[in-house]
Amino acid sequence: MTVTEQRPSGEVGRDRRRKEDARLITGRTSWTDNLSLPGMLHLAILRSPMAHARITGIDVTAARGAPGVVDVFTGPDIADLQGAMPCIWPVTEDTVLPVYPPLALDEVRHAGEPVAVVAARDRASALDALELIEVGYEPLPVVLDMEAALADGAPLVHEAAGTNRCYTWILDSAQAGTGGDVARAEAEAEVVVRRRFIQQRLIPAFMEPRSTVVDPTGDQITMWSSTQVPHVLRILLSLGTGMPEHKIRVIAPDVGGGFGGKLEVTPEEFIAFAAARRLHKPVKFTESRSEAMLSAHHGRDQVQDITVTARRDGTVTGMSAKLLANMGGYLGIIAPGIPILGAFMYGGIYKFPAYRFECTGVFTTTTKTDAYRGAGRPEATFALERIMDELAAELDMDPLELRRRNWIDSSEFPFTTAAGLTYDSGDYAAATARATELFGYDALRQEQAARRASGDPVQLGIGVSTYTEMCGLAPSRVLGQLRYAAGGWESAAVRVLPTGKVEVVTGTSPHGQGHETAWSQIVADQLGVGFDDVEVLHGDTRTSHKGLDTYGSRSLAVGGIALVNACQRVVEKALPVAAHLLEADPADLEFAEGAFRVKGAPGAATKTMADCAFAVFQSHDLPDGVESTLDADATYDPENFSYPHGTHLCAVEVDTETGMVKVRSYVAVDDVGRVINPLIVEGQVHGGVAQGIAQALFEEARYDEDGNLTTGTFVEYTIPSSADLPDIVTDRTETPAPGHPLGAKGVGEAGTIASTPAVVNAVVDALRPMGVTDVRMPCTPERVWSTIVAARAAGGEGR
Amino acid sequence: MTRISMTVDGVRYDDDVEPRTLLVQHLRDRLGKVGTVVGCDTSNCGSCTVLLSGTSVKSCSVLAVQADGADVTTIEGLAGADGELHPVQTAFHEQHGLQCGFCTPGMIMASVDLLTENPDPTDEEIREGLEGNLCRCTGYQNIVRAVHAAAESMRTSVPSTPEGAEAAEGVTT
């Protein structure tokens, strides 16, 4: 038998409108907070107003007597029930793993840490009662700056650890045998450029605040939660609390965005889990936006010291990145590993012969950090693409020309980098050529020169970002080598119903990505059934018992292949059935255009998957040894990461009198491999670029000197509105990804990874004649204006 | 408790409410209108937008008692009785104007109001008009497209772009 993988008129590659939309545009969505169970109690959490303090006492007497209140409890009250928050990525043998109680026991280490809980008949009563709880705090010194935290004699976030250093992780190409020695490269270099970049702290700011409902029934317990990772949550609830895994069911219903911010197992989930077990009643906790800003994990927050060495002709000879990464007061589930996801990417698409990366994780008395869209790779790409522009300026070379001289040529794949990754595919020249054409690069450079010559107060800046990323997380063996506690496979199951309709169970857990639509397109082609004949089930550990969920641009690149493999097993199972129905030899059949037929006999009788499904359902007349089912499942573990890449170009107008930055045009040309649904891919690029622009221009989580978050609402933490963002121009190139049966490389993070350096490079480019060599993010008018003033004072050219 | 009466999505409700109850809490917790969602506590995000006697309001910034006697339309009451979608709903679907969909009820209601006031808005007017509704997924570009498509559809009173007829593939400006 031969299987024709894709019908010419197939679903894959088509702009299908999303199946998910029907419930979302009519208000019939299943958000966790919509759920109400009989007898359900509402939880409210009292949070620490102090960044660092010893708890000297908590008086809950008045709160207990308040109207509607059923229970009030503190950490010590549930010490035996609540378990401990897990960190599953200790990146070194000696990574400090502090005890992390969901509800504080005797000390708080960031403002917003939960200290007491009220359970009441309604939410308003629970919130009212919080105000009646008296907590005694003995202030301890706050620890906010990472370098100060590492100094001798610094106050400690975790006294028992004896240090604020969480870990130091090093990758040195000379030691690893993957490349040269950066010290030697520096000694021999004709040009050395050093920069310190600050990756400001960001807040993922998913639109749906986190919510969880827990329903205990007998010895079983069901949790609904607005999470990206229901499968991970189930395992960690079990390991963290001791409750047997098979007694726990976790459901992620419709989830309103994540961006890594819901790639977490949270104290609030553990507290609700403990409350339900303590009270033997269903409970719900839904956070306010202010709570989300304060206590859901933050992202980025790194200090990057970057050194690039080169020859005068522009050839790069070495790259060194030394990082401090802020972990916050406790460790999120994969927090130590976030910078390590970037550790392999500081060389990007360029042929650096020598490479060194070193990262030290640091505890501070701030909200914990963890994954935020791109997770380590935006930070790496930013530092690299920024310093490539600085090198270009140093060499007085066009930034695109510098990149051309150093990037891996399309003929050189597979290419093993000095960081040890083997890139499978790419064509950086093709993507760049398309981007410069759409952008009108040369014309914009001419306009820039004219504005500079005329002394226009509004200067034009052009920013370049040529990126690649490692996606499709991840080969399990690699994760094991990196000391990550889980694997990186993904799972899918296909159930063919008697009427020929198909149910697909996926281990991925979408929260806006449109898996129900894209997975239906894949299955329709694979099994020759209609797009509308497929139903995709996800996010419930009872129906989807096996999965590793959605993050790291992995769902299609890994889960999609599991799905294809499961479909191919269905076809294999249907083959003997079809042959029997057609009274033919299975070896003579082919499955093409949705039906089995005798090879080379056009017009001959055919049998569809539905025919086979009904025959199997009846099982009146199956060949001996044929099982009465077509159902199949598959688990796929990738052999390598996937490597999307692309070129993003940004033009900004900077008003040098006010510091105002306006994005005038933005072109994104991405190579994400084979595209299942172009509409969804374009949407992912739009949203990703928007979040990257937001880091460049708008967003920063800030603390005051006492460790209070001063950007705790959407008033101060300014995620961009429709009036703040430009239209962007998107296009794609496509190079085949040889290691990937589906050819899809992943798209969820690409826009975010590429766009931040493109925008900041443009801002710096606009101001470079004034002597500006960096603008710290976010490039707000105030910061841009101050930078201009400082550059002028320092004797920069110009105006 | 205060006695209030309001019509929500065509049905009249009489309830006793605490004076401090927000309209959105009343809609969600008392009337079960959970299609209207809460995304913030500072009236910034616009996720809870409904039409109050025809004009869009953030239902977190209106007290339930202030809506006494009013006619409220939520996302759940926007489609026709026969289930036929409002042109704005259709346009958001056709133009891929939503991803996670959490901001969508508010975004659609705000767009309906915007088009009532300005049936043929420019890009800039749409972007300024929806400034009070935050979306974290889409970058707003397809939302702007959707509002244009809905405007076109409402002016000509024919259904919005048929599926697949206008491919979003490739270059878009």
How would you portray this structure in words?
The complex is a heterodimer of chains A (799) and B (173). Chain A has 799 residues and is an alpha+beta fold. Among the domains of chain A are: 21-27 and 489-636, 2-Layer Sandwich (Aldehyde Oxidoreductase, domain 4); 424-470 and 642-799, Aldehyde Oxidoreductase, domain 4. In chain A, the strands form seven sheets. A seven-stranded mixed sheet of chain A has the order 4-6-2-13-10-11-12, sandwiched between helices. In chain A, strands 8-16-15-14-9 form a five-stranded mixed sheet. Chain A has a four-stranded mixed sheet with strand order 1-23-24-25. In chain A, helix 12 (377-395) packs parallel to helix 21 (750-767) and helix 20 (678-697) packs across helix 21. Chain A is globular, with a radius of gyration of 28 Å. The N and C termini of chain A lie far apart (75 Å). Mean pLDDT of chain A is 96; it is low at 1-8. Chain B is α+β, with helices and mostly antiparallel strands. Chain B has two domains: 2-77, Beta-grasp domain (Ubiquitin-like (UB roll)); 87-168, [2Fe-2S]-binding domain (DNA polymerase, domain 1). Chain B has helices at 23-30, 87-94, 104-117, 123-129, 141-156, and strands at 2-8, 11-17, 49-52, 55-58, 71-73. In chain B, helix 2 crosses helix 5. The longest helix of chain B has 16 residues, at 141-156. The termini of chain B are far apart. Residues 159-173 of chain B have low confidence and may be disordered. The chains are: A alpha+beta (799), B alpha+beta (173). Chains A and B meet through helix 1, helix 20 and strand 29 of A and helix 1, helix 2, helix 3, helix 4 and helix 5 of B.
